[in-house]
Amino acid sequence: MVKQLINLFKLRIGIIMSITALVALIVTPGQPVQPWEALLLTMAVLLAASSAGAFNQYYERDLDATMPRTKNRPFVTGELPYHPLWLLLILLLLAVGVGMAGFVLNGMAALYIFLGAFFYAVVYTVWLKRRTWLNIVIGGASGSFAVLAGAAVVDPSLGPVPIILAIVLFLWTPSHFWSLAIAQKQAYATAGVPMLPVLVGSQAAAKAVLANTLLLVFISILPFFFGMGLIYLLGAAAGGGYFVYRNFQLVRDPSPKVAMASFFASLIQLIVLLLFAVVDSQLAL
């Protein structure tokens, strides 16, 4: 049951979003934040992201049943009952997460947390996923709002660094997800989901991934010119360089194996960027 709940609430994605928000809080200049505030932010983002993840699986049960990657999700297998009461629980999780942030942190942080969940659950899942290849591009703003939420706890007016990092997350999502979509192209085609590789082919999609990643890496370097230090620059260059290298391999050979290597490289790039950002900010104190 625990494994199925982890699957249902997409806790891996929620944890990534929570870490992203926490890193933004740490690197944003301003008044010191108490540890309990950082913990509350992490929990609020996790609850909101979990509610969005669960709604995604509730809404897409029919779609999940057609794809090998998702056919074992609990609503598809029946391990969890497909019942409208889940919608009540989903709304409750969202309300608790946003409410905690609004009452204890500030209204802007709460707004960004809500928008992150809304973009994933409604904009991406309901409005865009089955209609346009721009689904993951626009829906990817969900991760950007986690960055803004963390920064808003320190400074609701937002400085250049958190705004740039939010753009980085916005650009990271297409490169990350299109790599996976190239590997899973046939499954998306069978399900009728208009992911970019389905519409233009794996080769053209791989070139789009590379172009997007080059822009991503360029933008990720910009915080160095707005107060971040050499350690951050090293992390942005190293993680970004590795991701670009994997993208070049993908352009030469857009096979599922190489696409998955590009997918995992995106995770490495994000982890390195966030880790070096934290180290840089702490050593600068």
Describe the 3D structure.
With 285 residues, the chain is an all-alpha fold. It has 2 domains: 1-156, UbiA prenyltransferase (Tetracycline Repressor, domain 2, Orthogonal Bundle), CATH 1.10.357; 159-285, Four Helix Bundle (Hemerythrin (Met), subunit A) (Up-down Bundle), CATH 1.20.120. It has 15 helices and no strands. The protein has helices spanning 2-8, 11-27, 35-59, 61-64, 74-77, 85-105, 107-128, 135-139, 141-154, 160-183, 185-191, 196-200, 202-221, 230-252, 256-283. Helix 6 (85-105) packs antiparallel against helix 7, helix 13 (202-221) packs antiparallel against helix 14 and helix 14 (230-252) packs antiparallel against helix 15. The protein is flat and about 50 Å long. The mean pLDDT is 93.
Low-pLDDT segments, ≥5 res: none
Shape: flat
CATH-defined fold name of the largest domain: Tetracycline Repressor, domain 2
State the helix count: 15
What gap, in angstroms, lies between the N and C termini? 45 Å
CATH superfamily of the largest domain: UbiA prenyltransferase
Total domain units: 2
CATH architecture of the largest domain: Orthogonal Bundle
SSE ordering? HHHHHHHHHHHHHHH
The CATH class of the largest domain is identified as: Mainly Alpha
User: Structural class, from secondary structure content?
Assistant: mainly alpha
Query: Count of DSSP E strands?
Result: 0
User: Mean pLDDT, rounded to whole units?
Assistant: 93
Portion in strands: under 5%
C-alpha-based Rg, rounded: 19 Å
Largest sheet: none
What is the helix content?
Answer: over 70%
